[in-house]
Amino acid sequence: MNDASSTFSLPDHFGSRCFSNDVMRERLPRSAFEAILEIQAGKRELTLDIAEIVAAAMKEWASDLGATHYTHWFHPLSGLTAEKHESFVSPQPNGGMLMEFSGKELVKGEPDASSFASGGLRATFEARGYTAWDVTSPAFLKRNADRYVLCIPTAFVSYAGHALDKKVPLLRSMEAINRAGLRLLRLLGDTESERIITYAGPEQEYFLVNAELYRKRPDLLLCGRTVLGTMAAKGQELEDHYYGAIEEKAAAFMNELNSELWAMGISAKTQHNEVAPNQFEIACIYSQANIAADANQLVMETIRKVAEHHGMAALLHEKPFAGINGSGKHINWSIGTDKGANLLDPGEVANAPNEKDAAYKFMRFVLFSLAVIEAVDRRAGLLRAATATAGNDRRLGGHEAPPAILSVYLGDPLHDLFDSLETQNGAQKIANAFLELGIRSLPKLPKDFSDRNRTSPFAFTGNKFEFRMVGSSQSVATPLTMLNAAVAEAIEHIALDIEQELSKGISILDAARLAARKSWQEHRRVVFNGNGYSAEWTREAEKRGLPMFRSAVDAIQELTKADNVRMLTSLGIFLAEETEARQVVYLERYSKQIKIEAGMTIDLVRRSVIPATSEAASRYSAACTNIASLGAPSVIQETLAKRIAQLTGKAAEALDRLEKTLNDASHIEDELERAKAFRDSVVPRTDEVREICDELERLTPKDLWPLPTYGELLFTL
């Protein structure tokens, strides 16, 4: 072991490049620090004098650690992050310089808004945009070559105040769920909680491949996935990669990845081999939703950077390889109070000190859990739209990921509990349980309140829900925004029902039970505890009237559905024109991604595959001639030559059809009609070319095939 490792101190390293509340407590005057805490809690507005104090301390801290530049770091609608670096250097009249950073520079930036995707909210000649400091998300130092850059998490809006990013709606949705949640808690008699906090913990799946092989695959470079490629003799069928021992090269990568993330204050917790060869997962500990969204963007970016240091490339596409598992990003989601209560934890009922407290906590758990179920049922379209990408279309429903039908898994105990809401002793149904293993040397295992179901797109997992439909390359901000909005609406409905029952003069527990029973009866159709991969579930979902969005194009249209717009605007999360803009952006992105993949297919096949297979056919033909001259039979070589020549001709014809279809679709002006054309015409044509070329790969001699194969990509690091 390296001696240096013995001197490494994780407590000292963790957060060493994060301007956290602990750092601010040390570096700010007490009054300024207390003001920041009140601003973070929504009890006070940020003023320029407080910003000046924080800016001075932040600049001094960053400079001490070697930073020379800062940037307002934000999340445009591309789903990536954006940054414009500004130096701390301020020239002086005597020819010298000072390191300066003002409160105004901390609070507000002015990036050019015209070149970011805006869906029509900004035109080319309307360039001004503003970034605003998100006080609740800590600034951090990001490594940039041999220096650090101070990154200040911000929101991004237009000159007219429209949200041009993914963070503003997320913050608005967190406020909406805070208002609704406090309303419901007050009805239940909670006068102490002052804030409802939304928590998220994304799990990030990804592939690692050898960098040298990666650079020889133009499709991976430009598309993030292989547009051609046939499966190797071995894939994941032996189930030997999942949770297997992590090989040293991957472990070295993970060690550096963890170190980078920990230094920035990101609590990377879990790492393991995933199902497919060379597929891995990293998960971070729960944090406040907007902080979790920031952290996950950094996780994705850092995975890519660190992979390069180790001679590898990271693939975050939802389906980089056909025939094996794709990658998702499961979002663990819960809500709690500023007093530390988890509103979705049945364990708080089981551990209540007395019957009265148990009855209150039971009803609290029931109502907030039912609000989530109601939210998924009412706003399935919006939740599906939040996960709609061209990449995710190739993953969802593929027996490796949840189906594209929104349903909720509860498990039998919780399902039975909601069925029994007419009784008075529901709290007694929640109790601590243990597994007896029948071996005295093994401990009794605390048993969770429900099982898990990996085929469900939205599953209760003990004290939280897991949104499993989200794609691996996506920003989690939009799925969290839509989920928060839907839950806030459902909480408001339940609170209103309770208020109406209370007006009849009944007790709060009886009123709450009646409201809960009503919600369960109206929305239990969305609950499914069985196998989401089965064909029977698709038929059953149709009988239940659950919406089915078989493609991203269908789902994205939900953003401008009148009832969805009404809900989002009434909660103050979007303006109507902001939802319309996002629909335009997401449809355009879908079309552009398919266009790139089709163009890559045309280029790769025409310039690499056809020359290689033509040479292969010639080689076999020449072999036939040589063998015939010796008077020996040449049936095999002749058959191969003919088959390869025939398939090469078919590939050329299919390419011509694809090229024409691509050209026709690209000239459609309407965003929705263009996206439909790409889905219905271009994608099938692209897949047709792939099918032919994959057969050619199986027939072409290895030394002539121009691309690294799946066997090399998936079993080499």
Automatic annotation (TrEMBL):
Keywords: Coiled coil, Ligase. Residues 166-609 form the GS catalytic domain. PROSITE patterns: GLNA_ATP, GS_BETA_GRASP, GS_CATALYTIC. Residues 68-161 form the GS beta-grasp domain. One of its GO terms (biological process) is glutamine biosynthetic process. Belongs to the glutamine synthetase family. This is Glutamine synthetase. It comes from uncultured spirochete.
